[in-house]
Amino acid sequence: MQGTTMAPTERIDLVGKTRLWLGIAVAVMVIGFLGLTVRGLNLGLDFTGGALYQFRFPQKVATTTREEVRLAGEVRSLLRQLRLPSEPVIQVAEGDTLLIRLKLQSERESERWRKSIAQALKKRYPNIEEATAEFIGSTIGSELTAAAVWGTILGLLGISAWIWLRYQILGAGWLFALGALFALAHDVLVLVGFVAWAQIEVNSAFIAALLTVAGYSVQDTVIIYDRIRENLRLRQGWSLERVVNFSLLETMARSINTSLTTALSLIVILLVGGVAVKPLALSLLFGIVSGTYSSIFIAAPLVLVLQKWWAKRQAERPQPVRVARPTIAGERRPILQLPTERTAPLPSSPSQESGEEAKAPTGTILRPTPTTPPRRRRKRRR
Q1: What gap in Å lies between CA 247 and CA 243, rounded to an integer?
Q2: What digits encode the pLDDT tens for the residues 82-100?
């Protein structure tokens, strides 16, 4: 590439549409937040507490997904006649196992409803057998809720701190950390909002899916950040906008292909998988699509927006003038230098080195260069 000739990979201006990408991200985040406030989360027994009843047929009674859905609907209609204290969650696993989740407050209440449910099922399905019955107290559910929230928050902060340290060599590690943190917040809020609108049950598996999506998104973001760091070193004559745009176009194909491969696997699970794994696969699929968008169109362009904002803010603040020191051979200097103080140039002409006053622009005060006073000679005694 010579002069200002644009390479074929630079013909798409992604950075120029930063406002559009960020506007779409903010709009989707608002929709997710509305889902949390309007619909709320469908918390499972892991967080609310309750009973889990497991019944088993002697042989498979459902071999396809349609048959599993039909069987679950029949059981739900049967249990509604018992007037249960809460709406049961019914799942069919492996074609011969029936799982019934019911939100209850005490173990005594769980035992009473277990007997009623078992009697009703045996009247409708004489060959069904009761396998296990478990009760999760509300105290354990609240502890799991607190652990999940704190685990998610600490995970996001830890990832941001690691990115800040990793890219501090550029002299602006906090810019990259803020860009990655906003992208992660986007992924978390969008996925949680989607689960709220779809009323997917939130359990321990969903927390695992949430952290998986966050790690997947960070992986793509770090790859793009590494390419930006590499191009900043190789193309120091380029502007930051051009480097970011060029890096995004170089890594876009890799990010899309990786996400597409994972998405195809999840689509297969949605088509042929059981009822128990479909909510998890759907959450992962939606989260990976959101993470791919945030790593390409949010994390890196946001670094550029923050850098411009910081440069404008520093330019508006009155800064003391200092004399620049020469670069020592072998010294490592930051590649992405943020504006801090106005620096007066070093004397470069022989006239300036001989002691003449340096010319400075109006309003700029130059501090005199400190000189070493001459040493006094001692008189020798005769």
Answers
A1: 6
A2: 888 888 888 888 788 888 8
Q: Report the b/e string of 95-134 with b at 16+ CB within 10 A.
A: bbbbbbbbbbeeeeebeebbeebbeebeeebeebeeeebe
DSSP for 194-234 reads HHHHHT-EE-HHHHHHHHHHHHHHHHHHHHHHHHHHHHHHH
Q: Which CATH architecture has domain 50-136?
A: 2-Layer Sandwich (3.30)
Domain segments of the chain: what residues?
Answer: 14-42+141-314, 50-136
How far apart, in Å, do the first and last CA atoms of the chain sit? 75
Take residue 219 and report the two structure tokens written for it. Answer: 């992986």
CATH hierarchy code of domain 14-42+141-314: 1.20.1640.10
296-325: burial string, b at 16+ Cβ within 10 Å, e else = bbbbbbbbbebbeeeeeeeeeeeeeeeeee
Tally Cβ neighbours within 10 Å of residue 345.
12
Do residues 104 and 118 lie in contact, with contact meaning Cβ atoms separated by under 8 Å? no
pLDDT attached to residue 366? 36
Residue among 31, 14, 352 nearest 194 (CA): 31
- The identity of residue 28, as a single letter, is V
**Helix or strand (DSSP H, E) at 293:** helix 278-294
**297-356 pLDDT, tens per residue?**
999 999 888 888 888 877 877 766 555 555 555 555 555 555 444 444 444 444 444 444
The pTM for the full model equals 0.69
Alpha helices in 49-137 (DSSP H): 65-80, 107-124
Distance CA 263, CA 265 (A): 5
Q: How many CB atoms lie within 10 A of CB 90?
A: 20
